[in-house]
Amino acid sequence: MNNTLLPETLQALELKVARETGLDFSSSRNRDLEARNALAAKEFGFSDPETFARWVVSSLPAKRHEQWVETLTVGETYFRREAEVFETLEKQVIPALAANNTASRRLKIWCAGCSTGEEAYSLAISLARTKVDLKDWDVTILGTDMNTASLKKAEVGRYGLWAFRNTPSWFRDHYFMKLSNNVWEIRPELHRAVTFLPLNLIDLNHTQRFQRPDAPLLADFDLILCRNVLMYFAPDTASGVLQALKASLCKTGLLFVSASEFSLKGLDEFVSAPLGDTLAFRKSTSPAAAPKPVSAPAFVPKVRHQQKPRKASVLRRPLARPPKPVPKLDEVRQLADTGRWPEALNLCLRVLKERELDPSAHYLLAVLHIEMGHLKEAVLALQRALYLDPAHLLAHFSLGHLLQSQGFAKAAKKSFENALNVDRGAAAQVLPELDGLTVGQFRELVRQTLQEGDSL
Fold first, then answer.
1. Within a 10 A sphere around the Cβ of 437, how many other Cβ atoms?
2. Which of 5, 128, 191, 237 has a 20 to 30 Å separation from 38 between CA atoms?
């Protein structure tokens, strides 16, 4: 199937998407829109993406609009994404907000663009982890998203192991109930703490209250998290949303966006508030200087393997090369972080043409294949990574999980044991490629996984 749309069709579709969802698929994201349109065409029973796009622009029935919107949005997320943000919330922000609100004994938190619920539940867990006594307080945790299919998953509150890929074992074991080898359910008291409601952020200027009578008023929030959402909007649209979010904050409220969004137009009307290793934004009554962009690593997947590509990969290159720049793994990670898996996969394959002996590139390829459901290809990529670097902890661990999920218990056990046998120093040694986990913590995670496999 040819995904390419005629220029006039692509432009009309782009405008419809922007007008009705706020999502920006202009210029460099045109190919992404064509890819999503092709997938949606199959879902709607069309054999030709061009015909489907024209139908969407001119004749899409209102009753199928919601289904169409679901094909456009990115659902990629996981628990405690950017862990430093949640550590700051638990140690500094929540105690300070509670101190400010001792008289009202009220706390309102909003996760705007919550997708399938991981961030909203992470917030509920952060509240539970603080030493602040919130018993008998009126606490609201609201999660909103325009993708109703994602919200339905959030309301169920069940997740696979991949959603816990950036969390220590205690997080999953203490706050979730194991239903099967790969399904974990949020504990009832945390499930009850979060309310999920459908909302497109571009409608904020026209929405004061949801249709549900028991839904909270979109005002006076102490804390709003709107992370990895505004990056999908055109600059003017994102600026408008930021103004609406600002109006929804209480006088002392804080807004958190992702590090990649720090330089967005519209944040110049907030006051930046450095907190620990991250940055928040306060409401301001007068325009403030724009906060300086803060550099940050790509977040999904966080693979920062320190081994340099072997010199052999350089020697194999021909002396004369075209002036076309060689893509970097960071560019692949950035695409993956925004859920643009096909683009990330194609770019990763280009990287591998230049860095065929780089194990971290093969590992990243495996992660992309996993996200796209290409499990056999993922296994092969992990095996290549381990051939090049037998001490690659993440590759051993990921291969074990993949094999386990496919019923190869003995092979999975061997992969987990290989991970344990890698010598990475003392138990207190920090592993940068595992987001700061220590050697001891990683070993405990692997041992626990092995025990779970043995009990099946």
1. 20
2. 237
The residue assigned the tokens 């929804």 is: 248
Give CA–CA dist 91/135, Å, rounded: 18
287, 269 contact by CB (below 8 A): yes
Alpha-carbon 333 to chain mean position: 12
Angle between helices 359-371 and 375-388 (to 10 degrees): 170
Quick one: tokens of 91?
């140690």
Supply the Cα-derived Rg of the chain in whole angstroms: 23
The DSSP bridge partners found for residue 369 are: none
CA angle 72–378–183, rounded 5-degree value: 70
* 430-435 own/partner pairs: CB under 8 Å, 24+ apart: 431/393, 432/304, 432/306, 433/302, 433/303, 433/304, 433/305, 433/306, 433/393, 433/394, 434/393, 434/394, 435/83, 435/166, 435/302
Sequence-distant (≥ 6) Cβ neighbours of residue 18 within 8 angstroms:
24, 25, 26, 234, 237
- Which residue(s) pair with 185 in the sheet? 158, 177
If we measure between CA atoms, which residue out of 256, 206, 200 comes closest to residue 232?
Answer: 200
DSSP H helical segments within 196-355, as ranges?
Answer: 235-248, 311-315, 329-337, 341-354
- Contacts of 314-317 with CB under 8 Å at 24 or more apart are 316/356, 317/354
User: Where is 286: in which H helix or E strand?
Assistant: none
d(CA 251, CA 239): 20
Cα separations in angstroms, 47 against 1, 37, 42, 220 = 8, 12, 7, 49
- Give, to the nearest 10 degrees, the angle between helix 393-405 and helix 359-371: 30
Q: Return all residues near 359 (Cβ < 8 A) that are at least 6 apart.
A: 305, 307, 384, 385, 386, 388, 389, 392, 395
DSSP tag of 66: H
Cα–Cα separations (whole angstroms), residue 396 to 77, 141, 146: 23, 38, 37
CA distance 326 to 332: 12
Amino acid of residue 395? A
Residue-wise pLDDT tens digits, 46-97: 999 999 999 999 989 988 988 898 888 766 689 998 888 999 999 999 999 9
The predicted-structure confidence for 363-421, as pLDDT tens digits, reads as follows: 999 988 888 888 878 888 888 888 788 888 888 888 888 888 777 788 888 888 888 88
Q: Which helix (H) or strand (E) holds 272?
A: strand 270-275
